[in-house]
Specification:
With 309 residues, the chain is of the alpha/beta class. It has a domain at 7-169 and 212-240 and 276-292: NAD(P)-binding Rossmann-like Domain (Rossmann fold, 3-Layer(aba) Sandwich). 43% of the residues lie in helices and 16% in strands. It has 10 helices and 13 strands. Strands 2-1-3-4-5-10 form a 6-stranded parallel β-sheet, with helices on both faces. A 3-stranded mixed β-sheet has the order 11-8-13. Strands 6-9 form a two-stranded parallel ribbon. Strand 4, helix 5 (135-155) and strand 5 form a beta-alpha-beta unit. Helix 1 packs across helix 7 (215-228). The longest helix has 21 residues, at 77-97. It is globular and about 60 Å long. The N and C termini lie far apart (39 Å). The structure holds guanosine-5'-diphosphate. Residues 69-70, 110, 134, 166, 179-181, 184-185, 202-204, 208, 210, 245, 268-271 line the site of guanosine-5'-diphosphate.
Length: 309
Amino acid sequence: MHKGAKVYVAGHKGLVGSAILRKLQAEGYSNIVTRTHQELDLTNQQEVYRFFETERPEYVFLAAAKVGGILANSTYPAVFIRENLLIQTNIIDAAYRYGVKKLLFLGSSCIYPKFAPQPIKEEHLLTGALEPTNEPYAIAKIVGIKMCQAYNKQYGTNFISVMPTNLYGPGDNFDLETSHVLPALIRKFHEAKVAGAPHVVVWGSGTPRREFLHVDDLADACLFLMNNYDSSEIINIGVGKDLTIAELANLIKEIVGYKGEIVFDTSKPDGTPRKLLDVSKLFNLGWRPRIRLEDGIRSTYEWYMQNYT
Ligand code: GDP
């Protein structure tokens, strides 16, 4: 991508899209196109075609998606499968029809089988059953990958698919019903500290292991891959290390400065037992994350306090 190339960031208000937009601006890309949800309904095919016909972007970051944590996914499975299928199908097809030079599709680590060998390699895709709590979302993302590959094969497009691990950072969703674990725990510990509450409830057993990548590192990796990776094969983006939910809870508790107890609510689901990505493919290309988890949580906590409290 040259600095004057026309780049469309789909989903620029979201956690991932806003980080990609910040990164593009910081790197001096001067011709970035965005549309808010109100301006362009990505589930509407005609609107999406019209947008691509008028704007003719050269590069597309497909970061628009319906996303949510374990509870949101299991409560609204129909919404998750429908919206994601529509958004990605419309954009991928429009990118082909209107001659986009390269598209980067954001997948997710939940596309891998629930009991995939750890760390999870790219080739483990479609080798086993998925985690049921987010299967509809994962199936939609798998369709997106297969669609990019099919278009590359049949039409000679250059559509790449990247699989980020669990993400966090500024712009995260802190709604306790729909958020992922890391922002939820920042909020829970902060509110408990302010209220002087004796304990904080953490869902599940605390034993599942998760890997966390700061969204600014993800954005950096996405630009790196847009400029350095041309293959239909999917590629993982992560940090290569994980920790238990209990360890994460203790780390956040310490950063927030909460002095009470942690109580595990085992009536809530654990989800998949472990989800650590094998990032050797990406690391072999020369990319590395820069933000340590502790520093990332600290700055995300500051962002939360400035924007939510
Ligand atoms: P997942 O990675 O797709 O399973 O999604 P989440 O980030 O929502 O959950 C990760 C793990 O954190 C699961 O084992 C949850 O049960 C656990 N967890 C503990 N406390 C919370 C919480 O307050 N909110 C959420 N979303 N998950 C929590």
